[in-house]
Amino acid sequence: MVQQVTSGIKISVETDFEGTFYKNYKMNYAFAYKITIENQGNDVVQLNSRYWKIKDALNNIEIVRGEGVIGRKPILQPGESHTYSSGCLLSSPFGSMHGYYNMVNFSNTKEFKVYIPSFKLSAPFSLN
């Protein structure tokens, strides 16, 4: 598990290899990840949007931007957490992801970024 705290918001990431499949005559490697966002601060916050940079071992880079996470914009009271699962496809058995969430603090209406630590994606059969 990879963890990081930014401005009182703790991000924890767990990953899992889901398998391989062919799509359009190309091998794809499927990965799942579970993220827990925990408000360790004293203010109510809301996650508004996300930014991801996904990179595989062939140096293919995909940038993903969007509102919320899994169609939601969770509001977190102090001490609360929100967990969700998602996934990505890579063209190689290795890769990594990192990014950030744009959040707003309800106490002062200021927006801030919460960084998602870089985490590895790797198929178990490809490791030495």
From TrEMBL:
GO biological process: error-free translesion synthesis
Alphabetized InterPro entries for the sequence: ApaG_domain (IPR007474), ApaG_sf (IPR036767)
Domain ApaG: 3-128
Family matches, as PROSITE patterns: APAG
Natural source organism: Winogradskyella wandonensis
High-level lineage: Bacteria, Pseudomonadati, Bacteroidota, Flavobacteriia, Flavobacteriales
Protein name (database record): ApaG protein
Pfam family, one: DUF525
